[in-house]
């Protein structure tokens, strides 16, 4: 099971809105100055993922929750997103090459097949994305931010 921590933004009627920050591995690598990926991470957007998940337990804003998703559903999603456009690219490129016998036709077929593959992947993912196996679940809930107070006695 893949695990990730998220922060509760709101909780209403059994639906929790969660905020999860995008993580990169650039902070743990020692080759930051000479790495192209580190430069791209600095230039790219600093987006966070916002999602809504069903939660029977009432949650408070600021509370941290651990989310989990099955590896099989994650691998299946990656396979769908990457392989469907690639398959469409090769099939239509080959078909256009056989029909028209030119490289320009093969390139146009590859472009159409790749775009068609993305459209098919989007349609299939929207149909299967609502299934329970593809939804993240809440594994652990930390204490609310105001639940634990430490008072210091003065001597």
TrEMBL record:
Coiled coil feature spans: none
Transmembrane annotation, as ranges: 74-98, 104-121
Domain of life where this protein originates: Bacteria
Alphabetized UniProt keyword annotations: Membrane, Transmembrane, Transmembrane helix
InterPro entries according to UniProt: RseC, SigmaE_reg_RseC_MucC
Keyword Transmembrane helix: yes
PANTHER family assigned: PROTEIN RSEC (PTHR35867)
Protein name: SoxR reducing system protein RseC
Organism of origin: Mixta gaviniae
